[in-house]
UniProtKB/TrEMBL annotation:
EC identifiers of the protein: 4.3.1.3
Top-rank EC class of the record's enzyme: lyase
Keyword Lyase: yes
2,3-didehydroalanine (Ser) modification, residue list: 142
Pfam annotation, one family: Lyase_aromatic
Gene name of this polypeptide: hutH
Record's keyword terms, sorted: Cytoplasm, Histidine metabolism, Lyase
Family: Belongs to the PAL/histidase family.
Functional pathway: Amino-acid degradation; L-histidine degradation into L-glutamate; N-formimidoyl-L-glutamate from L-histidine: step 1/3
Protein name: Histidine ammonia-lyase
Subcellular location: Cytoplasm
Lineage: Bacteria, Pseudomonadati, Pseudomonadota, Alphaproteobacteria, Hyphomicrobiales
Organism: Segnochrobactrum spirostomi
Annotated NCBIfam families: hutH (TIGR01225), PRK09367.1 (NF006871)
C-alpha cells in the first residue's frame, strides 16, 4: 500500500498506516514549491552574504564564514560530526515513520533542499530501505540532531540500512537498490538533520499503541466488572452528563454498552446487599475518561507537529529570505509525550487494582486467587504480583521529561525540551501496560467462569470464547507464562477491539 502524502495535511490515520508498514509518496502538487525553495538557496549562495546554515558554521560557530568552495564539505561534515548517537537502533516502524515525517516537512518548500534530495528519501521509503539509527543522543532541541544525522549519513553512503531482516552497509544497500549516495548541496545537511521528526515519530508510535491499549482496557474492565458481579449503575449517563467531561461520557457509554445483555449482571439486580463497588470498578469512567481526553489532546498536538516545518533556518522563497528561528525546539512534543505517559500509567494502574480485587475473596466473592482449590494451588497469586511490578515500573517512567533541561553547545542551546526522552519511553510503557491488561483478561475470564451457567454480554462472551480458544480455564496450577503470553498477544494485536467492534469503543486518533 502506497499513501500519497499532501505535505501539511497528512492525517493521523495516514501516519499510523505508515507506522504499520505502508509506503509513502509525495503528492506531485508539492514539487513547484520544492523547486522554488532550492532556487532561493542558490540565489543566497550567489549573493555571498553570510546566512546561517548556508555559508556559516553551526551552533556556537555560526559566526565563522565558509568559502563557497567548501560548502559541500560543510554540509557533509555536519552530518558526519553530528552522527554521534548511541544505544540500540530505533525500531524499524518508528524509523520509517520518522523518514516519512521528514519527507513531508521538506516537501513544504521552506527548507531549501533540491528535488533530487527529496527523490532519494522518497525512493528509500518506496524500497523499505530504513536507516539504522541509534536511539539515544537527542535532547529535543536544535532538532533531533544525532538521530536525524544517522538517517542522513545513510543517505550519503555512510552507516547502514535495515534491508529486510539484515543490516547492510549503506553504500552497499544503495548500490543494490540502484540508488546513488546523495551529494549534499548548500543547507541540505542541516535541513535533513534539523527538526523534531525523531521525537515526533516516537511520540506518534506511543500514541498509536496507547489507543489499542486504551480500547482493550475498556473491554477487560467491563469483563472484570461482570466477574466481580459489579454494578453498571455507575455508568448511568445521567451521572456523567452532570460532570460534562467528553471522555468520561464516552467511556461510560462504552462500558454500559459492553455490559448490555449480561445474564451475570441481571442475576443480582435484586437482593445484592453491596451498596457501592470499589473505585477500580465504579470510577472507570472518571479515570479512563480522563485518560481519553488527555490522549486526544496529545493526538491534536502531534498531528499539528507532524504537519509542520521544524528545521532552521527557514527559506521564504517569495521574499528570497532565510530566517533563523526556533521551530526545532520540541516542547510541544515533550508535553504531548508526557501526557501520553501519564495516561498509559493510569490505564495500567487501575487495571492492576481490578486484578487485585478479583483475586481477593473478601472483595470479589470469588475463590481465593481465582482457583477452585486455593492452598493446594496458587492460581492467579503471582500474575497479580507481576502486574503490580509492571505498574510500579511505569510509575517511575511516567515522571515528566519536559520539566528537565540541560544546556548544550557551549550554552548556545541553553534550554532544551527532552522530547526525545519523553517520547522514546512510551513504547516500553505501553508494552508494560499491555501485559497488565493481558493478565486482567485472563483473570476476568476466569472469574466469569465461576458464574456458569450464567453468561456475560454477547460482546464480552465473544472475547471470552476467543481467549478460551487459546487458553483453557485454569483448574489446577500449570505453567502460567504461556497463558499470559497468549493473552498479551491478543491485547497487543488489537484483537479485543476487533471482536467487540469499533463502534463499541471510543477512538483516540479518529
Amino acid at each position: 500500500m502506497t499513501l500519497i502524502l499532501k505535505p501539511g495535511a497528512v492525517t493521523l490515520a495516514e501516519w499510523q498506516a505508515i507506522y504499520r508498514g505502508a509506503t509513502a509518496a509525495l503528492d506531485p502538487a508539492c514539487r513547484p514549491a520544492i523547486a522554488r525553495s532550492a532556487a532561493a538557496v542558490a540565489a543566497i549562495v550567489a549573493k555571498g552574504a553570510p546566512v546561517y546554515g548556508i555559508n556559516t558554521g553551526f551552533g556556537k560557530l555560526a559566526s565563522v564564514r565558509i568559502d563557497a568552495a567548501d560548502l559541500e564539505t560543510l554540509q557533509r561534515n555536519i552530518v558526519l560530526s553530528h552522527a554521534a548517537g548511541t544505544g540500540g537502533p530505533m525500531p524499524v516502524p518508528v524509523a520509517r515513520l520518522m523518514m516519512a515525517l521528514k519527507l513531508a516537512s521538506l516537501a513544504q518548500g521552506a527548507s531549501g533542499v533540491r528535488p533530487e534530495t527529496i527523490d532519494l528519501l522518497e525512493a528509500l521509503l518506496a524500497r523499505d530501505l530504513i536507516p539504522v539509527v541509534p536511539s539515544q543522543g537527542s535532547v529535543g532541541a536544535s532538532g533531533d540532531l544525532a538521530p536525524l544525522a544517522h538517517m542522513t549519513a545513510a543517505m550519503i553512503g555512510v552507516g547502514a540500512f535495515h534491508v529486510g531482516d539484515r543490516i547492510v552497509p549503506a553504500a552497499e544497500a544503495l548500490a543494490a537498490a540502484g540508488l546513488a549516495p546523495l551529494v549534499l548541496g548548500p543547507k541540505e545537511g542541516l535541513a535533513l538533520l534539523n527538526g523534531t521528526q525523531f521525537s515526533t515519530a516516537n511520540a506518534l508510535a506511543g500514541l498509536f499503541e496507547a489507543e489499542r491499549l486504551f480500547q482493550a482496557a475498556l473491554v477487560t474492565g467491563a469483563l472484570s466488572t461482570d466477574a466481580a458481579r459489579g454494578s453498571d449503575a455507575p455508568f448511568d449517563p445521567r451521572i456523567h452528563r452532570l460532570r460534562r467531561h467528553r471522555g468520561q461520557i464516552a467511556v461510560a457509554d462504552s462500558l454500559r454498552g459492553l455490559m448490555t445483555g449480561s445474564a451475570i449482571r441481571a442475576s443480582h439486580l435484586e437482593g445484592d446487599d453491596r451498596v457501592q463497588d470499589p473505585y477500580c470498578l465504579r470510577c472507570q469512567p472518571q479515570v479512563m475518561g480522563a485518560a481519553l481526553d488527555v490522549l486526544r489532546q496529545a493526538a491534536t498536538t502531534l498531528e499539528t507537529e507532524a504537519n509542520g516545518v521544524s528545521d532552521n533556518p527557514l527559506i521564504f522563497a517569495e521574499d528570497g529570505e532565510a530566517l533563523s528561528g526556533g521551530n526545532f525546539h520540541a516542547e510541544p512534543v515533550a508535553f504531548a509525550a508526557d501526557m501520553i505517559a501519564l495516561a498509559v500509567c493510569e490505564i495500567g494502574s487501575i487495571a492492576e487494582r481490578r486484578i487485585a480485587m478479583l483475586v481477593d475473596p473478601a472483595l470479589s466473592g470469588l475463590p481465593a486467587f481465582l482457583t477452585p482449590k486455593p492452598g493446594l494451588n496458587s492460581g492467579f497469586m503471582i500474575p497479580q504480583v507481576t502486574a503490580a511490578a509492571l505498574v510500579s515500573e511505569n510509575k517511575q517512567r511516567a515522571t515528566p521529561a519536559s520539566v528537565d533541561s540541560i544546556p548544550t553547545s557551549a550554552n548556545q542551546e541553553d534550554h532544551v525540551s527532552m522530547a526525545a526522552h519523553g517520547a522514546r519511553r512510551l513504547l516500553a510503557m505501553v508494552e508494560n501496560a499491555t501485559a497488565v491488561i493481558g493478565i486482567e483478561l485472563l483473570a476476568a475470564a476466569q472469574g466469569c467462569d465461576f458464574h456458569a451457567p450464567l453468561a456475560s454480554s454477547p460482546g464480552l462472551e465473544k472475547v471470552r470464547t476467543r481467549l478460551r480458544a487459546e487458553v483453557p480455564h485454569l483448574d489446577d496450577d500449570r505453567h502460567f507464562h504461556p497463558d499470559m503470553e497468549a493473552a498479551i498477544a491478543l491485547v497487543r494485536a488489537g484483537v479485543l477491539a476487533e471482536i467487540v467492534g469499533a463502534a463499541a469503543l471510543p477512538a483516540v486518533t479518529a
